C-alpha cells in the first residue's frame, strides 16, 4: 500500500506516501481478463510509472457496468484484446504524475473518465460536443496514447492491455492526464464511494436527461431498461420536474427501486402481447416527450422511438449496440416529427463539468445513495459480474 490512509468521507485526502513509489514500478493486485467470458484471474501485476502527460492513480473503489460485461464477453470481436484489465468506473488518489502534468497533483482525489477532455482540440473547444479528438472514448484502443505501449505487465514482463482509457480493475492504474478529473477545487460533500458513480453510470444517465434531451418541467418520459444508467435517467428527469416517468423492464424486481428514483408508472413488456409503443401512446395521449433506450437492443430501440410523440418526441440512445446492428427505422418515419440522437457520457465534458456536477449531487439535486447496492473485495469480482447479469445489483463497488 502506498498510502497510510484512505480518503475521508467528503472525498478529500490528506494521505501521505508511506514509501517512495514515485518513478518506480509498483507491484499490486489486479483482476485480469485472459479471454472472452473466462473467469477473471486476480493476480499480482506490475504497473509502470506514468510518462509525459500521464497520471498514476491508486484506485479506492471501482464498479461494473454493462460496457465491462460486453467487453468481458467479447461480444464485439473487433474489440477483443487479451490479457486485458477492464473497468472504467472508479475513484482514487493520485500517486504520482508524469512530466508536464499540472492540473492534478499527488494526493488529489480523482475519478478516471473513459471519455477524455484535452481542452485544446476543436471538439473540446466546441459547446456542441463533449468528444475529444485525441482522448475520446475508443473501445479499440488498448495502449497508452503517448508511446503506444502498455503501462501494465505480468510479473514476468508480458504486456497487459488497457481498456477505455482507464483500466480500473487494478489497485493502481495509469491514465492520460486528459482522462482524470480532480476534485481539489470542488466544494462537493460526496463520499469517495459516491464519487465513483460520477465516473460513468450516473453521469451518463443524468446527463442524457439534462444535456442531451434537456427534459423540461411537466414533460413525460419513458425509460427503457431500469439498470443503473436507466435509473440515473429517471433521477435526472425527476430533478428536472418531469411529471410522468414511465419505467420499462422485464424484471419486476427493479420496480420497487425505480419508484424511489422518481419513476411513476411501470410496464413489463411480457405482461401483454399488445405492442409496447402502442401501450405507451395510449397512456400518454399520443406518446412521450422524451424516450431513452438503455438496453442495447434494436427491438427495444424501435419501441422507444415509436413511443415518442409523433409531433415532437425525442429518443436518446444510451445502450451499447453490438455490430453489425443497424437502426431499425425507415427514413420516412422521421418525417412524422420524431427525432433520435445518441449520447456519450451524458454530454458532460468530464474535466470541466464534473466538479460542478459533484457539487449539485452533494446538495441533493441528484440522489446517489440508492445506486450502490453491494460491496465486495476485488477477489469476488466474478460474483459481482453475476449480480449484474442476474439483475440483482445496480452498482457493486469493488475494493482492494
UniProtKB/TrEMBL annotation:
Protein name: alcohol dehydrogenase
Family indicated by similarity: Belongs to the zinc-containing alcohol dehydrogenase family. Class-III subfamily.
GO biological process: formaldehyde catabolic process
Broadest EC class assigned to this enzyme: oxidoreductase
Reactions catalysed: a secondary alcohol + NAD(+) = a ketone + NADH + H(+); a primary alcohol + NAD(+) = an aldehyde + NADH + H(+)
UniProt GO molecular function: alcohol dehydrogenase (NAD+) activity; S-(hydroxymethyl)glutathione dehydrogenase [NAD(P)+] activity; zinc ion binding
UniProt cross-references to InterPro entries, sorted A to Z: ADH-like_C (IPR013149), ADH-like_N (IPR013154), ADH_Zn_CS (IPR002328), GroES-like_sf (IPR011032), NAD(P)-bd_dom_sf (IPR036291)
EC annotation from Swiss-Prot or TrEMBL: 1.1.1.1
SUPFAM superfamilies in the record: GroES-like (SSF50129), NAD(P)-binding Rossmann-fold domains (SSF51735)
Keywords tagged on the record: Metal-binding, NAD, Oxidoreductase, Zinc
Region (Disordered): 1-21
Positions of the Alcohol dehydrogenase-like N-terminal domain: 54-181
GO CC annotations on file: cytosol
Quaternary structure (record): Homodimer.
Amino acid at each position: 500500500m502506498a498510502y497510510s490512509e484512505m480518503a475521508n468521507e467528503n472525498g478529500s485526502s490528506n494521505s501521505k506516501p508511506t514509501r517512495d513509489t514515485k518513478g518506480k514500478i509498483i507491484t499490486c493486485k489486479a483482476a485480469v481478463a485472459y479471454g472472452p467470458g473466462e473467469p477473471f484471474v486476480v493476480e499480482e501485476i506490475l504497473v509502470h510509472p506514468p510518462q509525459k502527460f500521464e497520471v498514476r492513480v491508486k484506485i479506492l473503489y471501482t464498479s461494473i457496468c454493462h460496457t465491462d460485461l460486453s467487453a468481458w464477453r467479447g461480444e464485439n470481436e473487433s474489440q477483443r484484446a487479451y490479457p486485458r484489465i477492464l473497468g472504467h468506473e472508479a475513484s482514487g488518489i493520485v500517486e504520482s504524475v508524469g512530466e508536464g502534468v499540472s492540473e492534478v497533483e499527488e494526493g488529489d482525489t480523482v475519478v478516471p473518465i473513459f471519455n477524455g477532455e484535452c481542452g485544446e482540440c476543436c471538439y473540446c473547444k466546441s459547446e456542441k460536443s463533449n468528444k475529444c479528438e485525441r482522448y475520446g472514448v475508443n473501445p479499440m484502443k488498448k495502449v497508452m496514447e503517448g508511446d503506444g505501449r502498455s503501462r501494465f505487465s505480468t510479473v514476468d514482463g508480458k504486456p497487459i492491455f488497457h481498456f477505455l482509457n482507464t483500466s480500473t480493475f487494478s489497485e493502481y492504474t495509469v491514465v492520460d492526464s486528459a482522462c482524470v478529473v480532480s476534485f481539489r477545487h470542488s466544494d462537493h460533500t460526496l463520499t469517495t464511494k459516491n464519487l465513483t458513480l460520477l465516473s460513468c453510470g450516473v453521469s451518463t444517465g443524468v446527463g442524457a436527461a439534462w444535456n442531451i434531451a434537456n427534459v423540461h418541467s411537466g414533460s413525460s418520459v419513458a425509460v427503457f431498461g431500469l439498470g443503473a444508467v436507466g435509473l440515473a435517467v429517471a433521477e435526472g428527469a425527476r430533478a428536472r420536474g418531469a411529471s410522468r416517468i414511465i419505467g420499462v423492464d422485464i424484471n419486476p424486481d427493479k420496480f420497487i427501486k425505480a419508484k424511489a428514483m422518481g419513476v411513476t408508472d411501470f410496464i413489463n413488456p411480457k405482461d401483454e402481447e399488445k405492442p409496447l409503443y402502442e401501450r405507451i401512446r395510449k397512456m400518454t395521449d399520443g406518446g412521450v416527450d422524451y424516450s431513452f433506450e438503455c438496453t442495447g437492443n434494436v427491438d427495444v430501440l424501435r419501441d422507444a422511438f415509436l413511443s415518442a410523440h409523433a409531433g415532437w418526441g425525442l429518443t436518446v440512445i444510451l445502450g451499447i449496440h453490438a455490430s453489425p446492428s443497424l437502426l431499425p427505422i425507415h427514413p420516412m418515419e422521421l418525417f412524422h416529427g420524431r427525432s433520435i440522437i445518441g449520447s456519450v457520457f451524458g454530454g458532460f465534458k468530464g474535466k470541466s463539468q464534473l466538479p460542478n456536477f459533484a457539487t449539485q449531487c452533494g446538495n441533493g439535486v441528484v440522489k446517489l445513495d440508492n445506486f450502490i447496492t453491494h460491496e465486495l473485495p476485488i477477489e469476488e469480482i466474478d460474483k459481482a459480474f453475476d449480480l449484474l447479469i442476474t439483475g440483482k445489483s445496480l452498482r457493486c463497488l469493488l475494493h482492494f
